[in-house]
Design goal:
Rossmann fold, four-stranded antiparallel β-sheet, 10 helices
Length: 248
């Protein structure tokens, strides 16, 4: 297993956002986490990546207990994520934005401005990341001037620039037109294969995307795992259909 969660808990007052969740994720899996608003999906992602500290339980990555490991160190050992709202700096160009991510990964932040302008390794990796996502022709555009779908891809590309082993994506198609959603997901999957990402964990509301691209679906409700199964098994689960998928 590459990621293991044991009895993970996160409470916000009386709200049990993640409530005693245990989960194992192996290499080669494309996992979607679904559930109604407030189910705990993003909180779970935040715990795995270190943005939040758990109130109980344990997180293991490649056999190592990382429960108390800071976010920056989790990035360096192979965990990276994107956000539901693209974390884009509006006054940077796309090229500069990717460089910032790479500088952080390589530990060159002490000489940040020098690395941003003059480091050949950083420039080479930034070019590769933009090319991987079909954004190199937009490298000199200010991020604020990119189309929404391009901003989403740029945010994902910045996570991929960390060359992670596991990538966690929080609604990478939100706000993207229906016609563009499959292109975004297929670009992500192609890039994952290209750089050798071992597992993808996706929080997604678009059920067409979920059932088309997942090898496994985890259903959350009120901080707990309601179901953890293959797409056909999830479709056949009457409780999931009623509470999450909007069926009878």
């Amino acid at each position: 297993m590459i990621v293991e969660l044991y009895n993970l808990k996160k409470y916000f007052g009386d709200v049990h956002a993640v409530d005693d969740v245990s989960l194992k994720i192996g290499e080669g899996e494309q996992i979607s986490i679904i559930g109604p608003n407030g189910a705990g999906k993003t909180t779970l992602i935040n715990l795995i990546t270190g943005l939040l500290k758990p109130d109980g339980g344990k997180i293991v990555f490649e056999g190592r207990d990382i429960t108390n490991l800071p976010l920056s160190k989790r990035c360096k050992i192979g965990l990276a994520r994107s956000f539901q709202l693209p974390a884009i700096f509006p006054n940077l160009t796309a090229f500069e934005f990717i460089k910032v991510s790479i500088i952080s990964r390589l530990g060159k932040s002490k000489n940040f401005y020098s690395s941003l302008e003059h480091d050949d390794e950083v420039s080479k990796l930034a070019k590769e990341s933009l090319q991987l996502f079909g954004l190199y022709d937009k490298k000199d555009f200010l991020t604020q001037n990119l189309a929404h779908g391009e901003k989403k891809l740029l945010d994902v590309a910045s996570a991929f620039a960390l060359k992670p082993k596991v990538i966690l994506l929080d609604e990478p198609t939100s706000g993207v037109s229906t016609a563009e959603k499959r292109r975004v997901v297929e670009t992500i999957l192609s890039a994952s294969k290209e750089i050798g990402i071992k597992s993808i964990i996706l929080v997604e509301h678009d059920m067409d995307i979920v059932f088309s691209y997942s090898t496994r679906i985890i259903v959350m409700c009120e901080g707990k795992i309601l179901a953890d199964a293959s797409p056909p098994e999830v479709r056949a689960n009457k409780e999931v259909v009623s509470l999450v998928l909007g069926g009878g």
